[in-house]
Structures are given as C-alpha cells and as structure tokens.
Amino acid sequence: PVQFTRGTYHYDLASGKYSMKWSSLEEMQQWIREEENTKTIELHRKEIRRNRSKKPPVWTSKHIYVCSRQGSRSISKYTKKTARGRKIPSKRILTGCQCRLTVKTYPGMTEVLGCYTHEHSHPTGDANARFIRIPVETRRRI
Question: Domain of life here (predicted)?
Fold first, then answer.
C-alpha cells in the first residue's frame, strides 16, 4: 500500500475520516444551505484554523461549523441581575449538540474535504424552527 504524509489531501481521503468532498468552498457553502433548509437547522462557523507549520503546509485551513444550538462561543460569565421570563427559551442547550462539520482546504487545490457528524441532541425539523433565524428575504415577504 502507498503511504501518504499525515494530513495531506490523499491521506485524509484514504483514511475515510473526511468522507465528504466538494469541488470548491462555494459548493460546500451551497451544501450547507441545503442541509439547513432540509433539516431546519443552522450551522454557524465556529472558527477557521490556519496551518502554522514551519514546514511546507500539507493543508491550508480547517473551517469548523457547529449547530447553532451548541453555540459558537464559550458561555458568558455574566450573571443577569433580574430573572425575566422569555417567550422563546434560549436556543443554546446546556449539554450542547454534537453536530459538527469540519472542512479542510489544501494548498494549490480548489477541492475541499469534509467530516460531518450529523446527529443532533435535540429535535430537528418543525420542532426546531422556532430557534432558527428567518432569512432576510423571507422576512421581507412577511
């Protein structure tokens, strides 16, 4: 068997960890929009990790997306002064949501690979609709 350098495009493809493939980042963004519409979820970009290796990089960046119910930032240390009730409860789940998409880009290539964990720790579909943002064009029609 041929050995590939760890972290390269061919290594990630052969390992099976990055099982999804798109021809460009734009195509991946389109896939995210379709996934959000189909399952009535929101995927937010949590971070972009750049390869800071001193050696020639085998990958350029990792784009990490998480479910909006997970939250993309750490929990605030601020405590509210008054306990007011809300009509719509907070979208963030204390236990978090394990849904995550990691997309890797490689030097000199437009093709990107993705690793997608699609299980959610909360209901999706209509039960989740009250926690997602309404797109601007839909809001204008209303």
Answer: Eukaryota
pLDDT per residue as tens digits for the range 80-97: 777 776 666 666 666 678
Query: Mind giving me the DSSP string for 65-124?
Result: EEETTT-SSPPP----SS----SS--S--TT----EEEEEE-TT---EEEEEE---SS--
- How many domains does the chain contain in total? 1
Structure-token pair, residue 12: 């990630």
Selection from 136, 127, 141 nearest residue 40 by Cα: 127
Q: What secondary structure does DSSP assign to 38-66, as a single string?
A: HHT--EEEEEEEEP--SSPPS--EEEEEE
Is 1's pLDDT higher than 60?
no
